[in-house]
Amino acid sequence: AGYYDADKKPLYTEIGKVARFDRDFFVKNMKCYTVTKDPKSHLGVRYIVLKESDLAQSLAALRIKIIGYLVFSFILMGIVGYFLGRLFLQPVREQIESLDKFISDTTHELNTPISAILMTIQSLKDIEPKKMKRLEASAKRLSTMYGSLTYRLEGGVEPSEELCLASIVEERVEFIKELSDSKRLQVEQDLDATKIYMPKRSVYRLIDNLISNAIKYSDVGDTISVTLKNNVLKVKDTGIGIDEKMQEDIFRRYYRANDERGGFGIGLNIVLSICKKYKIKLGLESKKGEGSTFKLTFPKIKSSTKR
């Protein structure tokens, strides 16, 4: 405590110098001060000042406790929310797993009849060429859809190997030639010999989905351009194009930008997952009404690198 006269000079004090007398209460250097003014100046004492050290420390301790309780509460709510989320989402997860199993079983059952159709078509004779091409195009479209479905559902580990990308592109373009011919599309190819290192089946899925997608969204008589230069593969079409607002969504699973053109909405999602897995840079340039260009930049391989 401290006692001070009207000139704020100490008459008796245990607290040293007081910073101010114009406030009833203030805090300085983590110390609390209470100032009481006596207008009558009894015994010459005008100001009585009390100093409390423990109060500031108590306030600081209380502040730390409150922060600690808040942090603990947030952590507790997060844990409870996590377990409640798992509990409520369990039926949904079971339904999704059941649906995936059903699709997987169904697609495997489709394999035998699709293979049989393709083999039968090759052995058919004395059929009009136009009808033959229509049958073959439909069968190969089924085969491509089947390949996409099984690739997504199986998800197994495939061995990588050194491949010539240009040869595979030529092979897959020829494989789905009936599809492009059915819409009278012209497929132009400008391919440089390019070595890549990845599983052949994944490359098939990349090429099949990109070219099938270009065929699907092209109008009758359009042109599809496939170029391969400096490890960059471009698949360009002059079809309906993609609205800028939808360009990020088209890679989402089951998303379809245009319901009129059909499809399951998994082809471009497969392309994206393969690109991420094998460090292929994926780009898209598109304008509605003018067509789209998908650009894949493959990592360069070194023949001396051990695999």
Structural summary, described in words:
With 307 residues, the chain is of the alpha+beta class. Among the domains are: 2-52, no CATH class; 161-297, Histidine kinase-like ATPase, C-terminal domain (Heat Shock Protein 90). It contains six helices and twelve strands. It has helices spanning 54-123, 129-154, 165-175, 177-182, 200-216, 267-277, and strands spanning 2-4, 10-13, 25-28, 31-37, 47-52, 161-164, 186-191, 195-198, 223-229, 232-237, 281-287, 291-297. The strands form three sheets. It has a five-stranded antiparallel sheet with strand order 2-1-5-4-3, with helices on one face. The chain has a five-stranded mixed sheet with strand order 7-9-10-12-11, with helices on one face. Strands 6-8 form a two-stranded antiparallel sheet. Strand 3 and strand 4 form a beta hairpin. Helix 2 crosses helix 5 (200-216). The termini are far apart.
